[in-house]
Amino acid sequence: MPKKKIFAIPNVPTPNQPVLFNEDVCTGCNLCVETCQIDVFIPHPQKGKPPIILHPEECWYGGCCVNDCPVPGAIQFNWPLALRGYWKNKETGKVHQI
Ligand code: SF4
Ligand code: SF4
Description:
There is one protein chain. By secondary structure, this protein is α+β, with helices and mostly antiparallel strands. It has one domain (19-97): 2-Layer Sandwich (Alpha-Beta Plaits), CATH 3.30.70.20. It contains two helices and six strands, in the order E-H-E-E-H-E-E-E. It has helices at residues 31-35, 64-68; strands at 19-21, 41-42, 52-53, 75-77, 86-88, 95-97. The strands form three sheets. A two-stranded antiparallel ribbon has the order 1-4. Strand 5 (86-88) and strand 6 (95-97) form a beta hairpin. It is elongated and about 70 Å long. It binds iron/sulfur cluster (2 copies). One iron/sulfur cluster binds at residues 18-19, 35-36, 38, 40, 59-65.
């Protein structure tokens, strides 16, 4: 059977990034790809590289991908500004972001 080439291009009109990968830490195990029920990611064609964010606008920010990643620091949320929470420590005055 002849091999087929499949071309996948990340969404150009809405290039937001619901999560950020740390290329130095991510092992490219693709567990986050399997975990995401919305199929936001696809595996990277190069083994060992972080997945590709193909459908960022579909992310629900539920966090399964971040919570299930077995490698600390490999993936983190990148909340849109409107969804970010802030709180201020009354004693120090320092503003923290969730
Ligand atoms: S972010 Fe975590 S779960 Fe996803 S490929 Fe990298 S190491 Fe695996
Ligand atoms: S937060 Fe949820 S929907 Fe968004 S990429 Fe992670 S698993 Fe998929």
